[in-house]
Design a protein that fits this description.
Elements (H helix, E strand, L loop, with lengths): L4 E7 H10 L1 E2 L3 H6 L2 E2 L6 H8 L6 E7 L7 E5 L5 E5 L3 E2 L3 E6 L15
Antiparallel strand pairs: 1-4, 2-7, 3-6, 4-8, 5-6
């Protein structure tokens, strides 16, 4: 499977550290699972609601999937749906955009346009 852009949500402080080092190593959950979790545009809002509900101080990373090479694998997850997983660190150079992901008045995350 091939998507041009994929998305990852992380804490702003973790991303700031990644920018200084040149690579993002993933969250504690990512590292425990052995890969960095990503979502497509169609999946990322539901992923945020399931895994990041109520968390503030987050950013949305838009990533060029083509820059990740063979370390990016599409694997079944929720209900057999394929999700992108990165087996290795995310190079800062592969990130196309970093946007704040604030909580909206309803307590859910307020996403920018994903198209």
């Amino acid at each position: 499977m091939s998507e041009g852009r994929i998305f990852h949500i992380c804490e702003r402080t973790a991303w700031d550290a990644a920018e200084r080092s040149g690579a993002y190593q993933g969250s504690a959950d990512d590292r425990a699972d052995g890969f960095i979790h990503f979502s497509t545009a169609a999946q990322v809002v539901a992923s945020a609601a399931k895994h990041r509900a109520g968390q503030d101080g987050l950013v949305l990373l838009t990533v060029d999937a083509k820059r990740l090479g063979a370390a990016l694998r599409w694997e079944p997850s929720r209900g057999g749906e394929l999700f992108p997983h990165l087996y290795g660190a995310l190079p800062v150079a592969a990130v196309l955009a970093v946007q704040d992901l604030p909580l909206g008045p309803d307590g859910g995350h307020a996403f920018p346009p994903l198209d």
